[in-house]
Design brief:
- The protein has 2 domains: 3-159 and 243-272, Rossmann fold, CATH 3.40.50.1010; 166-241, DNA polymerase, domain 1.
- Helix content is 43%, strand content 10%.
- The protein has helices spanning 10-20, 34-50, 66-70, 83-86, 89-98, 111-120, 160-167, 174-181, 196-206, 209-214, 221-229, 231-241, 262-272, and strands spanning 3-9, 54-58, 103-104, 126-131, 145-149, 156-158.
- The chain has a 6-stranded mixed sheet, sandwiched between helices.
- The protein is globular, with a radius of gyration of 20 Å.
Amino acid sequence: MSKTCLVLDCFALVYRAFFGLPTTIRRQDGQAINAVLGFYNTVSSLIEQFQPDYFFVASDHPTPTFRHNLFEDYKAQRPPMPEELRGQIPLIEELVHSLGAPLVQLPGYEADDVIGTITNHAPVDTHCYVITTDRDALQLVDSQVTVVVPNSRANKMFTPELVKHEMGVAPERIPDLKALMGDASDNIPGIPLVGPKTAVRWLTAYGSLDGVLSNSHLLPGKAGTNLAERQEEALLYRHLATIQRDIPTFCCWQAGRLNFDENEVRQTLDTMGIRASIPQVG
């Protein structure tokens, strides 16, 4: 019988919760807990829905990543974390620990790389559900990995077929796509004048970024000229957009087995001033 693993993108869900609920949600001492409450409600619902055998939470490390070292402007446009959210991070970490989930992070890498490594090394009989709002993770989708974008009404489940339908390319070609058209969310510029439609058309014609670059002399217009003149940049952008799947992080599957003490979770929630039910597992 196959097993199920939930892998949560911690900060993607934390930001979703913080901006989805008002900061007027506070405990008696005035501490804002809107992100903590929203995060817990999402996690509790997911545990009940998927009844996972394994449960991991992946997090960004506060230090710069290898991507920042390669490209100074990587994610440079992003504003700093709001102070009212920063004050809730220790509470969220405490909550994760009370649920018995390993909180996995590694200096020099992003949560995406942790997620890529966990899913890449999953036991052969285990299907991984990656919970995130970050569409970068769509490149991980295959027969054993489903990306789930949480929604209050119905979670969106990305299969390889849905990724191809929405993105125009197969999951494994998404870094190639981003190398050509750029990615505003990560501040990856892409090639000037190459938009999504052009990038998809080129990748469909030549199969991969390498194929497109080999045939750049055949590409028409200023967009084709720009690519021919910026081939090294395109390769750098693909590297930035590619999730690493074999980083040297601790990943013990026994430690990830879902196994929490209901009393400990209840005590943690009470301490935080949260009245909510404990997820029921079979």
